[in-house]
Amino acid sequence: MDMKVVPVREGNYNLKDYEKLRENFSWDDMKKYFSWDTTGKVNMAYEALDRHAEDSEKKNKIALIYSDPYREEKVTFKDLSKASNRFANILKDYGVEKGDRVFLFMPRSPEFYTAFFGILKVAAVAGPLFEAFMEQAVRDRLQDSEAKILITTPELLKRVPQENLPNLEKIVIVGDHIDDSDKYIDYYKEMEEASDEFDIEWVDLEDGMLLHYTSGSTGKPKGVYHVHHAMIQHYATGEWVLDLKEDDTYWCTADPGWVTGTSYGIFAPWLHGVTNVVRGGRFTPEDWYNTLEKYEVSVWYTAPTALRLLVSHGEEKVSNYNLSSLRHIMSVGEPLNPEVVTWGLKAFNLRIHDTWWMTETGAQLIVNLPSLEIRPGSMGKPIPGIEATIIDNEGNELPPNQMGNLAIKEGWPAMMRKIWNNPSKYESYFMNGWYVSGDSAYKDEDGYFWFQGRLDDVINTSGERVGPFEVESKLIEHKAVAEAGVIGKPHPERGEIIKAFITLNEGYEETPELLEDIRTFVKTGLSAHAAPREIEVKDSIPKTRSGKIMRRLLKSWELGLPTGDTSTLEK
Ligand code: WTA
């Protein structure tokens, strides 16, 4: 196969002269696109929403098209701005102040976006949580962040812990809830009563905006803290990578509980003032194509796991729909298989552009730009303003084609500014002025980066990042489980699945029922995507002499690979 895919459609592609732009680029050049550059008044909610609502030509434009199987709603910039003013007033009345953490635990909905902007307008820090989380996952995050207010629905309230959350003052309920204790705030009632005028809190570029919890290989999930300054990069990548134009209808399939669903499901599209499609609920391939067709989506940002599902349903399906509006497709979250890129060319007559970044990086860093040649299987090249390289374990740069740690030169606008409550964890990301990603990759002679895998034990299942420690901790809470070691096992559609090795406590015997019970225990205690699809019972779990589970050895066993250096193995 010819690995050089040439653009199949001429568009308004930016960055034609990539090398030249990189050479001369400075992030400061982007400031002129923001009103604060002249007014000194900063707030993401203003740039992404109120600015359009104040613009007589934009205010009645559709900002949000929301749909799920039961509901369809179109909301203009003006209405979203007014509604979020109301919500900001509610938060202010209940004493929310700049820097306070306000969490959202609810499905995608117009109310979600209203509340989200309301939080930013009072200069509080928003913490969106996946609706799939179970009680333990919710508790860990609310405890660590010391959240003051939580916004949720009556259905999800069942999974909100009612104890040991001393900082949580109020719970806003979006929906019917019969409990008049003053701990609860009735969203619809108070929204009706609140004023739709609000004086937005101006902040500094470096003030906090967002807290996204994500998993590492050790410890509980950590709070990755982002600031308003990130908007510069959201805007820039919205132009260069998403290639957004005034008349685009854009659809990002990611949930806002994940960084893609905020950086590219909220900020980038609305900084550009385009119509943003949000689809709630679970989707079948028919739903995907229907959504693209019905709303005439032109720019689509999705994930390899979804694309692989579409591939498995065949190319013929695509021809049943009129997707003539679609002009640009991107992918993120896991390696994008070259076969999927090739399939995309046949099925959509379009290239699929891989993009690489992380919760910690806040925005895209290494991408396939619309203006550049695509090498299927490669993540592409760093955007202007980003210097990427491959380093060894001592922090020395490696020559082309050598595998090592993918690292980025410190200091870009969307970079996390801290790990909440954990300065040493934050420090551990950096070496010799490089941010070390934890991914292994190499760079070819032409500067394209090729992803090889994770260097730590973090699991990527269907694009969701899962920390083995969190799953192991839950497993050993089950009465039958003595020890547990958890790994990611390669899987053709899901990327990886979670496999657990366990030892049983005395008096328990391995039966299919017991294994199912253990699985369900994790699923209902933590979350569905964290539940191991495979569980294998062992006599012992390999550990180092210091008691650390040797997940790497478990993985080698599983894959039938050489076991390497086992000198630290406990005897
Ligand atoms: C993986 C996602 C290969 C990678 C925005 C990274 C990818 C982790 C790609 C971050 C890609 C993300 N190709 N792998 N294009 N994009 N990853 O924080 O291992 O949920 O470190 O953020 O996903 O996952 P996170």
Explain the overall architecture.
InterPro entries: AMP-bd_C, AMP-bd_C_sf, AMP-binding_CS, AMP-dep_synth/lig_dom, ANL_N_sf. By secondary structure, the chain is of the alpha/beta class. It folds into two domains: 18-443, Rossmann fold, CATH 3.40.50; 458-559, ANL, C-terminal domain (GMP Synthetase, Chain A, domain 3), CATH 3.30.300. It contains 17 helices and 27 strands. The longest helix is centred in the N-terminal third of the chain and has 17 residues, at 77-93. It binds 5'-O-[(S)-ethoxy(hydroxy)phosphoryl]adenosine (WTA). Residues 214, 259-260, 332-336, 354-359, 379, 437-439, 451, 454, 460, 465 line the site of 5'-O-[(S)-ethoxy(hydroxy)phosphoryl]adenosine (WTA).
